[in-house]
TrEMBL record:
Family: Belongs to the AHA1 family.
Top-level taxonomic group: Bacteria
Stated name of the protein: SRPBCC family protein
Domain Activator of Hsp90 ATPase homologue 1/2-like C-terminal: 12-134
InterPro entries in alphabetical order: ASHA1/2-like_C, START-like_dom_sf
UniProt xrefs under CDD domains: SRPBCC_CalC_Aha1-like_4 (cd08897)
């Protein structure tokens, strides 16, 4: 059984804005990085059940890059996204209204190459960038 990692954040924005910024490539390229020395120069998103997405993640100095992609299994507008990463790990994202905020809970199956803490820290950093970008744009 694969280890599951859960991360969460609260975003001060409407659910519709959160959903739009999470799913539209023109926004994804603005927040999808774990540190300031990385960026996402390209994002493609066929946001339908059975559709695929690919985000090119690259170091800003050009020394490294990789594609992060997967296939959507389930989409409930403004509520839930489930997808399978290309390495067959499952990711589930929930969007819940709490007072004037949206709570995003992302649960993903850990990979075996890197320590759990490193994976959690990296994915949380990306989620924190999403929060910051969405609240300030």
């Amino acid at each position: 059984m694969k280890t599951k990692i859960k991360i969460t954040t609260l975003v001060n924005a409407s659910k519709e804005k959160v959903w739009r910024y999470w799913t539209e490539p023109k926004h994804i390229i603005k927040w999808n990085n774990a540190s300031e020395d990385w960026h996402t120069p390209k994002a493609e998103n066929d946001f339908t059940v059975g559709g695929k997405f690919v985000y090119t993640m690259a170091s800003k100095d050009g020394s490294m890059s990789f594609d992060f992609g997967g296939t959507y299994n389930e989409i409930e507008t403004n509520e839930k996204i489930v997808y399978t990463i290309d390495d067959n790990r499952i990711v589930e994202i929930l969007f819940e209204s709490t007072d004037d905020q949206i709570k995003i809970t992302e649960t993903f199956e850990a990979e075996t190459q890197n320590p759990i803490e490193m994976q959690q820290t990296g994915w949380q950093a990306i989620l924190d960038n999403f929060k910051n970008y969405t609240e300030n744009n």
